[in-house]
Amino acid sequence: MSELFDEVNEEVRREQFKKLWDKYSIYFIALMVLIVAGAGGWQGYRYLEAQKAAAAGAAFEKAAELSEQGKHEDAEKAFTELAAKAPSGYRTLARLRAAAEAASRDPKAAAKMYDDIAADRSIGGEWQDLAKIRAAGLLLDSAGYADIQQRLEASAAPKSTFRHTAREMLALSAWRNNDMSAARKWLEAIDGDGETPPGLRSRAEALQALLPPVAKS
User: Fold this and answer.
1) Which of 92, 114, 117 minimizes the C-alpha distance to 102?
2) Which residues 6+ apart lie within 8 Å of 194 measured at CB?
3) Cβ-proximal residues to 154 (8 Å cutoff; 6+ apart), any chain
């Protein structure tokens, strides 16, 4: 008798499953199709992105070769074109290189290009800081200390990646603009940082020797 009940239960289960399958099979099949299509689409997307990165890398190398050959205007044009269409990583590098190439013909225009990169929050803080450093370097001989201070003071903070370079530029700018108090401030910051590179520390000591003695109160 128990075997009979088992057979009946099994038959009932099969009938219920058949009804469920007849009712919902179209949705299950559609779900499977979407999963397969999604996986194929993801693989296709990865392939296309890899192709774009490879093409951008080749274009970047060609532009760099133009720069090495002294064809700075052609290199600038190539980097600018690459920056407009390359994947994000190459785009930022291309923008920085385009500005570097422009510096040979028009430092102020190049500084403006670096300023635009520095203002672009989408590229990340370290890239922005690097662009600020590059722009300030181009303007160091012509800009007043207040301008350089506005550009670099945040980059000279204790944990900033480019703090050493920023402090040296601030000290030089202050010295060239006869602000000895500010120059001394940044030279002391360089001296007090245990991670200051030896070469920079030596240059700071040389500049320190050029400063007038502190007036006694």
Assistant:
1) 114
2) none
3) 160
Dmax of the chain from CA atoms? 114
By C-alpha distance, which of 183, 184, 211, 186 is closest to 196? 186
Model's pTM, two decimal places?
Answer: 0.71
Between CA 183 and CA 193, with CA 188 as vertex, the angle to 5 degrees is 135
Instruction: Tell me how long the chain is.
Output: 217
- Could you tell me if 160 and 128 are in contact, meaning their C-beta atoms sit under 8 angstroms apart? no
Q: Is pLDDT of 81 > 70?
A: yes
The pLDDT score that the predictor gives to residue 41 is 60
Predicted confidence (pLDDT) per residue in 143-170, tens digit = 999 999 999 999 999 989 999 999 999 9
Task: Name the band, by pLDDT with cuts 50, 70 and 90, for residue 106.
Answer: very high
- Beta carbons within 10 angstroms of residue 179's beta carbon: 18
CA distance 136 to 175: 15
Tokens of 168: 């040296």
What share of residues in the chain are helix, strand, coil (percent, to 5)? 80, 0, 20
For residue 90, count CB atoms less than 10 angstroms from its CB and return exposed for 0-12, middle for 13-18, buried for 19 or more: buried
Number of H helices, E strands in the chain: 9, 0
Q: Answer whether 57's CB lies under 8 Å from 49's CB.
A: no
